[in-house]
């Protein structure tokens, strides 16, 4: 039976719970808010399936294969505005829906918890747009995916690399009508941190939320903004990586899952059809696409992926680029995040202290942070942000060399 002795060796994909023939494995939340398998030993028949299909135990090597790379931007202005980057996922999903298929991705439930869920019509794709910087609950979606495929329907399944590897391990065979999309993942933040963050924000804002946007384009594509949309439209919350606690915890690698510090799925050649991520430096490849509205960078790993993009050109601006250039400098694809030395203390305090007190302790909003926010916003408005970002990276790089 599956036994987690080291939490760094469990990505929480839920494949083990999904494959168990006796349904004796439950994904339970620990004190950091992450899910781990718990086995009811009274029911377990020790068939070994859970261990045999674990994608971390049986990590696949990064085997070179033919790839194509693209830059993509949706032609629909609303879809582009609502999407984190270029809106490619919406077009891929529409291709599946047009063939009577089902689309599975991460969306909010009624309480704004992030869960994997289904869409069977174009209008419902909106709930999948915009990144959710929280590890989602897979629930029964692996089993449901298999059922839809056995019925002969197309299925699009999207998620983080570990979630897609979990799906492949669970299915244990290929399906002609399965379309898969993984996102280049920095790391998976804690649902507990997110829940506590929402509690604090509800108390501060004092209005019912209607939406939460982790990567809103309120200040433009290049300035990551956390936006909370309220029932009372006179109340505005749009804070960036300098002044929003959730964003700061994420980019400080403070709130992420232990397995993310030694991620087993950081590689270029993947089993999915599509790997998608941002392209902030689109002007390095082309002046044709509007780099202020968002562009999706894509690695196409299969013939099916190339067919879907070709048949979706009525919705998309598509530019083919060199695959080696596409992945150049993309650290998130190849390297795990480093451990923040304050991480353990942060989670200990999160479970002991009042949440606001804890957040203030680890992520105080000082005058410096507020000034940094204004500097970032002005450089974005003046079109200088990318140049300042390059300069900052060059300075930090030279400091590392001197060390």
Automatic annotation (TrEMBL):
- Keyword field: Iron, Iron-sulfur, Metal-binding
For molecular function, the Gene Ontology terms on record are:
iron-sulfur cluster binding; metal ion binding
Instruction: Provide the leader sequence positions.
Output: none
Annotated 4Fe-4S ferredoxin-type domain residues: 1-30, 35-64
InterPro entries registered for this protein in UniProt: 4Fe4S_Fe-S-bd, 4Fe4S_Fe_S_CS, FrhB_FdhB_C, Polyferredoxin-like_ET
Protein name in the entry: Hydrogenase
């Amino acid at each position: 039976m599956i036994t987690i002795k080291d939490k760094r060796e469990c990505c929480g994909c839920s494949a083990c719970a999904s494959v168990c023939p006796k349904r004796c494995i439950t994904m339970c939340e620990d004190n950091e808010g992450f899910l781990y398998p718990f086995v009811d030993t009274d029911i377990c028949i020790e068939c070994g399936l859970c261990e045999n299909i674990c994608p971390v135990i049986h990590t696949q090597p990064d085997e070179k294969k033919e790839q194509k790379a693209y830059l993509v931007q949706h032609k629909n202005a609303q879809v582009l505005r609502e999407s984190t980057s270029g809106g490619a996922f919406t077009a891929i999903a529409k291709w599946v829906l047009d063939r009577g298929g089902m689309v599975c991705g991460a969306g909010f439930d009624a309480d704004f918890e992030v869960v994997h869920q289904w869409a069977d019509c174009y209008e419902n794709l909106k709930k999948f747009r915009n990144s959710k910087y929280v590890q989602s609950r897979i629930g029964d979606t692996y089993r449901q995916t298999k059922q839809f495929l056995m019925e002969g329907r197309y299925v699009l399944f999207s998620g983080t690399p570990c979630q897609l590897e979990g799906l492949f391990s669970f299915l244990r065979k290929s399906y002609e009508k399965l379309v898969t999309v993984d996102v280049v993942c920095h790391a998976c933040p804690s649902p507990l941190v997110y829940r506590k963050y929402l509690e604090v924000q509800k108390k501060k804002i004092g209005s019912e939320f209607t939406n939460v946007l982790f990567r809103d384009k309120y200040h433009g594509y290049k300035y990551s903004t956390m936006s909370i949309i309220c029932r009372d439209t006179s109340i505005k919350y749009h804070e960036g990586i300098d002044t929003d606690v959730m964003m700061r915890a994420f980019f400080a690698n403070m709130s992420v899952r232990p397995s993310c510090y030694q991620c087993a799925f950081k590689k270029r050649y993947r089993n999915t059809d599509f790997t998608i991520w941002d392209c902030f430096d689109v002007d390095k490849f082309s002046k044709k696409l509007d780099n202020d509205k968002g562009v999706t960078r894509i690695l196409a790993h299969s013939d099916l992926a190339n067919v879907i993009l070709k048949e979706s050109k009525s919705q998309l601006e598509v530019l083919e680029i060199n695959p080696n250039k596409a992945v150049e400098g993309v650290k998130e694809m190849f390297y795990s995040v480093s451990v923040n030395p304050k991480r353990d203390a942060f989670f200990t305090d999160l479970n002991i202290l009042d949440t606001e007190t804890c957040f203030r302790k680890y992520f105080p909003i000082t005058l410096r942070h507020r000034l940094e926010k204004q500097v970032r916003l002005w450089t974005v408005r003046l079109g200088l942000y990318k140049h300042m970002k390059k300069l900052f990276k060059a300075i930090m790089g030279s400091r590392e060399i001197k060390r």
